[in-house]
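Researcher: Quick test of sequence recovery. Tokens follow.
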């Protein structure tokens, strides 16, 4: 099976702080890869390097058999990926249709194609009733749905989702899961970060766990389940915070 994402010794340093420390990722095409870790572990920094938003301090990486650090190849990679970033990065003073039209034209899609896909995406994600509102008026969950619509619009081969399910209602979350499963079943790849292990267990075929900038686990979900639950393996790999386990005495006192 060909590789969608591969890194060797991927490193990112901010002044004296090492955010990503020698990460070796291997994500096969046609897989749903869950990238897990505590807050500040290096998940979003890794995605920013893979998508060309941050320059690595060191190491090698390949995305869809191309080198994102090579200017002659980076544009071709961007044409084949969709991204829902952690901060969403939507334009405030446009409607959903205007935003999707802008994204579609940036990918060189013709206007009829953008219009058709926009109609389908807005209906799928239950955004047709607010189409006249500006995105700055959207709730956080609605903004996430629009960001996902924009990421899916160009029909990419690789989709990066950074905490994309948080703040989305249960009905839409179910629709998104079905859509992404269909997307992966055709041979495309999803790289997902999430703090909700239940979502990862429902969706993902493979898992990587990062802690303190280092990749401490990488395996198929089936392999992990043979030995323990995903939650148990996650806690084992990232380390248990003993301070968090200490009881709050004032809560135990019923008097």
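Model:
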């Amino acid at each position: 099976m060909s590789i969608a994402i591969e890194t060797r010794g991927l490193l990112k340093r901010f002044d004296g702080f090492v955010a990503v420390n020698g990460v070796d990722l291997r994500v096969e095409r046609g897989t749903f890869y869950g990238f897990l870790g505590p807050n500040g572990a290096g998940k979003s920094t890794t995605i920013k390097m893979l998508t060309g938003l941050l320059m690595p301090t060191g190491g090698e990486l390949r995305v869809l058999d191309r080198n994102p650090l090579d200017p002659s190849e980076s544009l071709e990679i961007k044409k084949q990926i969709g991204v829902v970033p952690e901060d969403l990065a939507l334009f405030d003073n446009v409607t959903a249709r205007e935003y999707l039209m802008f994204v579609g034209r940036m990918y060189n899609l013709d206007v009829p194609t953008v219009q058709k896909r926009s109609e389908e995406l807005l209906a799928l994600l239950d955004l047709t009733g607010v189409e006249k509102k500006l995105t700055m008026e959207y709730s956080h969950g609605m903004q996430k749905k629009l960001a996902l619509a924009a990421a899916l619009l160009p029909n990419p081969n690789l989709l990066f989702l950074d905490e994309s399910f948080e703040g989305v209602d249960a009905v839409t979350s179910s629709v998104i899961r079905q859509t992404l499963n269909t997307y992966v079943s055709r041979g495309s790849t999803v790289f997902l970060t999430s703090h909700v292990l239940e979502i990862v267990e429902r969706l993902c075929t493979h898992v990587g766990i990062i802690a303190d900038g280092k990749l401490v686990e990488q395996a198929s979900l089936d392999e992990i389940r043979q030995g323990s639950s995903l939650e148990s393996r996650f806690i084992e790999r990232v380390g248990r915070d003993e301070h968090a386990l200490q009881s709050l005495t004032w809560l135990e006192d019923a008097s």
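The first strand starts at residue 3 and ends at 14.
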